[in-house]
Amino acid sequence: MKKSRWLALIALLSAVMLLAAACGGDDDEGDGNGASGEGPSDCTWTIGTMGALSGDFATIGEPIFQGIEYAVAELNDAGELACTIELVSEDSQGSPDQAPALAQSLVEEETLVGIVGPYFSGETLATGEIFSSAGVPFICPSCTGATIDDQDFSTFFRAVADDDVQGEVAGEYLASLGGTVAVVHDNQDYSKGIADKVAETLGDSAEGPFVINPEETDYSSVVQQVNGVSPDIVFYGGYSPQAGPLAQQLKQGGVDALFVSDDGTKDAAFGELAGDAAEGVQVTCPCVDPLGIPEAEAFVEGINAEYDRNPGTFAADAYDATNLIAEGLKEADADADVEEIRASLVEYIAGSSYQGITKSYTFTETGNLEIGPEGVYVYEWSNEDEDFVSLGPAGELIGE
Question: What average pLDDT does this structure show over 168-178?
Fold first, then answer.
């Protein structure tokens, strides 16, 4: 009996020594999340994101997610924050109907300090009150719908120019090209908002609006209506899954007009969707091409190395938004209450003047980015590049 107890004691002591050795090894090797032994060790802060990661709009959402994911990896590698950053994502497929439940799931994360997202305007309108009520700062890297400003979301920030800015600039750009413009949209929040602003800016030179059903694939009735006004230009407010087929059906229907759309169509999948109608299609976008920015060179190289592609639409803006949150976390205490960290982040972002790789970030009282027409660019589809290629700032093109 005494021998059994002695053996048990030896086994217990051995187990304790092994556990101590394992813990010591962790100190030498880091925490497995890119942080060094001098950086974060046993605490976690969560950054959430939500958008179209699958479904019809995944080709729009995926580059945005990659910009966020890449930023988080860099932050953890640097190990400069008190805690390791964990990225938690929810796939809304861009649907306002799915978004609220997913937003609720995010705010229930005990270590959640901020959100980069949602990606689309409709889902932002559907979830803004959930995030604001929880005191969670959320920076939308790509939702441009101007009606978000009217909702009084207390923790909302927007990383790009809104559609009032983009729509007015797009309208002025189209007016500078001359001729009649047929305005088409699919009646969704984002689509209708920018199309209405374009039509308002164009005045008497606008025809329409002509409305398609985004749930359908046959747009022949709208093609016939557009053909009836013999436009020089067709402006479509909406997203690439509908813009591509619409451009193709307009061409097949005999509409000989320049097809112009918005940032919702600036998608590398557009060429496949539009077929032989893709070449020469133009889009406006409140997004800078990072390939043309010296300050973004390391980011472009990093995205290429990690994902084997150039940064997609809004990837760089999402990267900036993630780093803006991180900048506000630099003075945060690892032991601070998460509600306290959220509140301090809202205060920090609201008063910030942060210089990212794409632009300087200063916000109005409604969370809008302080930026004007200089924040809107024009891109043109190139079959050779299999993507949209920057023509430059819209303001410069208007002045030509």
Answer: 97
Domain of 122 in residue numbering reads as 44-162+292-369
- Structurally, the chain folds into a number of domains equal to 2
**CATH code at position 252:** 3.40.50.2300
Q: Where does the pLDDT of residue 36 fall: very low under 50, low under 70, confident under 90, or very high at 90 and above?
A: very low
The H-or-E segment that residue 66 falls in is helix 58-78
Q: Is residue 26 part of a domain?
A: no
- 251 shares its domain with 304: no
Looking at residue 160, its amino acid is V
pLDDT of residue 41: 55
What is the number of residues in the chain?
A: 400
- When pLDDT is cut at 50, 70 and 90, the band that residue 400 belongs to is low
Q: How far is CA 392 from CA 25, 284, 306, 376, 396, in A?
A: 53, 10, 27, 9, 7
Do residues 78 and 107 share a domain?
yes
DSSP 263: G
Residue 34 falls inside a structural domain: no
Span 156-180, average pLDDT: 96
Would you say residue 6 lies in a domain? no
Residue 357 near residue 300, CB atoms below 8 Å: no
- Tokens 């043109």, residue located: 380
Q: At what angle do helices 220-228 and 240-252 cross, to 10 degrees?
A: 60
Could you list the beta-strand ranges (E) of the chain: 44-51, 84-91, 112-116, 138-140, 156-158, 181-185, 206-211, 233-237, 258-261, 282-285, 354-355, 360-361, 377-382, 387-393
pLDDT for residue 18 is more than 80: no
pLDDT in the model for residue 163: 92
Are 115 and 194 contained in the same domain?
A: no
